[in-house]
Amino acid sequence: MVRFGLTVVRHGETRYNKDKILQGQGVDEPLSATGFRQADAAGLFLSNVKFTHVFSSDLLRAKQTAATILGKNKFCKDLEIKYDARLRERKYGVAEGRPLTDLKAMAKAAGEQCPSFTPSGGETLDEVRERARDFFEFLCRLAVELEQKEQDMHGAPSRSSGTSEEQLVFPWTNHCSEAELSSSNGGASKILDANILVVSHGAYMRNWIGYFVSDLNCTLPTNLTKSQLSSVSPNTGVSHFIIKLENGNLLKPEITCVCLNQDSHLVDVGAECVAPKVF
């Protein structure tokens, strides 16, 4: 059985986030001072987790967040960050660079509601979900290949390419019930074939998690509400999943959400942690 960890983090705040202006793909803003503080805090929160792979959207706000998080890590500061356009934010077309209120007005004029409304030149939710599905299947293939290499080298899955048990003591285990941890077969206690960090964007992440839940029947934390599930992650919110592939079967991944949009690391940052519904 192939088993890997997936930690997904939203980028830190930009000035456009603060002003509720849509960035999408066409506005490539850097992090604000607050955004860098948030990324520092997320990096400290994850500093004891040994990642085997790091992927980031190729947009600047995500790249800066990924680099900051990795720079705080005790085990993998020198790990290469791989940038992937499939992790970009949803494209908002003519609405990019304009206030969120403009998007809502466009949707109302079209007789639709956000976030299902697609402005001219933008991506539909189905198109975003297809990007997320394609990237997730790539991660599953990566984990299967790593496990297969271990078998080829050692004749049995010794998982030496994975992380040591000591380094799998994740910080968010303090924020989960025993049932949630046991539902992922011991949570962090078992060795993983890979432990992957992904840095992406709010609307994209919400769509990706929606795909996990509706298409792949992801098991959710028992205390998660519907509003939490549908909300956009706060800047540098952390979500963690355990994915199991029985017999390397890519078609039927078993996904357990250990935590969703965890933001306890932001308590001392002094930033606004409540995200609007659409980004």
Describe this structure in words.
The protein is an alpha/beta fold and 279 residues long. Helix content is 34%, strand content 14%. The chain has 8 helices and 6 strands; from the N terminus they run E-H-H-E-H-E-H-H-H-E-H-H-E-E. A hairpin with an 8-residue loop joins strand 5 (238-245) and strand 6. The longest helix is centred in the middle third of the chain and has 30 residues, at 125-154. Mean pLDDT is 87; it is low at 157-167, 174-189 and 271-279.
Measured distance between first and last alpha carbons = 37 Å
Mean pLDDT: 87
Low-pLDDT parts are 157-167, 174-189, 271-279
Strand content: 5-15%
The strand line-up of the biggest sheet is 3-2-4-1-5-6
What is the number of helices?
8
Structural class: alpha/beta
CA gyration radius, whole angstroms: 18 Å
Number of strands: 6
The helix fraction, in percent, is: 25-40%
